[in-house]
Amino acid sequence: xxxxxxxxxxxxxxxxxxxxxxxxxxxxxxxxxxxxxxxxxxxxxxxxxxxxxxxxxxxxxxxxxxxxxxxxxxxxxxxxxxxxxxxxxxxxxxxxxxxxxxxxxxxxxxxxxxxxxxxxxxxxxxxxxxxxxxxxxxxxxxxxxxxxxxxxxxxxxxxxxxxxxxxxxxxxxxxxxxxxxxxxxxx
Length: 187
Description:
14 strands; about 190 residues; 14-stranded mixed beta sheet; Glycolipid-bd_prot_put; Glycolipid-binding
């Protein structure tokens, strides 16, 4: 089944980013344009993600184009917490991470929501692979997800920032509203 949707980033101005995403059979392809903050130039992020039936990420390809230069990152995962670069270089610092979180997109919040199948009031703490554009340097990040009800999850950054937000999601676990950061486009 093909599904097309998009989000507008609103984190530092009314239209800080625009994302267009195509979902089909365990694959997502996205094009995202972001307006840089302060001294950061605008950039374009394209990513392609593949996952298995358990919503475990298996492959992530990311490419950034900007005035500061182009970057690419191609990661492979076995679905059991082992990560490597596409050239076979192991990434032991990411050992045990099952999910990926890419900034700036709310789509990757769908992975833990779908994979965990939490019930109302249930909470999970996770080690995530966090990748921030435009740098594309993967690192570990501890996050928490609590299902408040079928349409709302409390997201928490359990690292240094302590950031938290209540995400509104649809029946497929896709973000509708991420307060202060993203809003899903209508249509």
